[in-house]
Amino acid sequence: MAKPAKYLFVGAAEPWSGKSTTVLGLSYQLQQKKVDIAFGKPLGTSLNGSNRKVIEEDAKFISESLKLEENRLAPTLLSLDKFSLEKRLSGDDTKNYQKSLAEQYLQVSFGDLLLLEAPSDLEEGILFDLSLPQMAEVIDASILLVVRYQSLSSLEKVLDAKQRLGKRLIGVVVNDVPSEDIGTVNNLFVPYLEKHSIPVLGTLPKTDLLRCISVRDLVHELQAEVLCCSNRLDLLVETMAIGAMNVNSAVKYFRKRNNTAVVTGGDRVEIQQAALETSTQCLILTGKLPPPAFILNRAEELEIPIISVDLDTLTTVEIIDKTFSQAHIHEPIKAECIRQMMSEHFDIDRLLSLIDLNPATTLS
Fold first, then answer.
1. Residue 3 phi, psi (nearest 5)
2. In this structure, which topology does domain 6-210+328-354 adopt according to CATH?
3. pTM here?
4. CATH homologous superfamily of 213-325
5. Most exposed residue of 39, 76, 158, 310, measured as fewest CB within 10 angstroms of its CB?
6. How far apart are CA 145 and CA 117, in angstroms?
7. Structure letter (DSSP) for residue 329
């Protein structure tokens, strides 16, 4: 008889803390330990427009990266989009989602461990009775909390979560720690939490690569037109530069940056030319003005995509900033970075002990 699965949520107290990063890295480590894992994300964030079938992009990427069989994928119950929220608020949706969660998660065999990515914070999903604390209670799940380090005051979010989650909170991952703060985290932050019976299972350093976004992401978020090099949209962008100065200043400015997306007006030909001769991954032209033919030809030679947006520079920059802050992990190079980082900085053996899961004795 198969051993019933244990349930582990990877959650956060605030959005964009690094849940997907932690889930992916943790999953690789569990597989190395020969733990028979399954994965799920009960609340999704994206839909197929044709039939409103829930398609969760992060869940799809993680399952493909881990090469999980279909019977090791738990279903996504609903998407928290405007349509779903309006139906719930109007009373058209009266479904008992906790019952649905229990039926689809407790009555199916998911191997040794069902690893679940929680909503973006502790409150999201409460309108459907599917907040993290509520779901964990229904399926008797443990919770691993990811906190993005900003300062020592980040401790307060962990302590608040401990009060709300109680014994279900089995540990914390401190994510995105700048190099200059590693000593502070190791000498003050971590010991304080351990002293208050909150195990710290990992401290993950800040890594610029994970904040990179692809040119394809920019095209999507800006609803841009690709003018050339459509086969190079997988290029990764580390920084953004605004070409609003004179050409001499622009050249000096661009040369100080690497793997840059340069935003400039479609009429600033001299800035476009300067950008193409530096470490530019993408040229973003505002105002819907086409560049001259020689700019397009030079970009083709250098294999640098040029995209055009029907937006002003300020709006374009705001959208790009938001895209950077919400960078996804869907590129293989990021997955490899996460795998290495978690293997170096996360204590997988301590986690297995805390959830009372010994892979040497699990039954298949």
1. -75, 130
2. Rossmann fold (3.40.50)
3. 0.80
4. HprK N-terminal domain-like (3.40.1390.20)
5. 310
6. 11
7. -
